Every structure is written in C-alpha cells, then in structure tokens.
Amino acid sequence: MKNIFNPLHSEEILNRIDKLSRNLKPQWGKMDVAQMLAHCSSFQDIAMGHSFPARGWLGIFIGNFVKPIFYNDKPLARNMSTIPTIMIVEEKEFETEKEKLKQKIITFQYNGPKKCTTHPHPFFGKLNSEQWGKGIYKHLDHHLKQFGV
C-alpha cells in the first residue's frame, strides 16, 4: 500500500492534483472539484492535528472493527459516507483550494510520521502514523479518481 509519507508517493499525488481543472465533473458524488479539494484539505487538518471532530456513536461502536478499510489495499467505496464536519457544500474557489491542499500535503509529508496526530480519527478511532500515512494516500487517491486523474 502506498503511503503519503513516502516522497515518491506524495509527489505522485501532487502531480495528479496539478492535472485537475475547474471544469472537471465527478464520476460519482455531489461535490464539485473545488469542494473536493476543500474536503481533502479539511481531512489533512485532522491528520495534522489542527482539527478535532468529535467521534460519533457509530464510529465508537464499530469504527475499530472496520478501520482496516481506511489503510488496506482495497479501494474506498464510491459514495462512502464522510465525516459531517468536512462535507463541503458551499462554493469554493478552485485555484485557492488546489494550492491550499498541495501545501498541506507537502507540509504533512515533510513533517513525517512523528508529527502526525495522535488524536483519534472521528470514525475509525486510534490510528498509528503508518495507518494515517496509508489512509491519507488512499483518501486522496479515491478523490482524484473521482475526477478522472
């Protein structure tokens, strides 16, 4: 499984982000490309320890049992539910969101596993830095595929 902490894997993701354009349509889901970038950026904030959404009852109940779906080799399901606080519905500016996400990925990769959050994921619960690194890559890959890149 690829890991965002690996410089080659983060470079691949950054190159794919550069291939996005504001007029791309999603192959699934409701977010447009700028909203998707903002969503991914908000998810980075959680992994970086800048945002701490509360754990919902469902995550507390089953999150620990299903958490391997976050970091295993299987692709994430299309139209999978998301953390309510990072569901982006308001209009966003494409170039701003694109650059913001790229900078967060660069910072996260540069800071490395030791600076990854120790706060529990809002659904899956406690994750180690390797699980976060794989999960971040997988999440970004999922959304880039959503827009065909």
Automatic annotation (TrEMBL):
<dbReference type="Pfam" id="PF07606">
    <property type="entry name" value="DUF1569"/>
</dbReference>
<protein>
    <recommendedName>
        <fullName>DUF1569 domain-containing protein</fullName>
    </recommendedName>
</protein>
<dbReference type="InterPro" id="IPR034660">
    <property type="entry name" value="DinB/YfiT-like"/>
</dbReference>
<dbReference type="InterPro" id="IPR011463">
    <property type="entry name" value="DUF1569"/>
</dbReference>
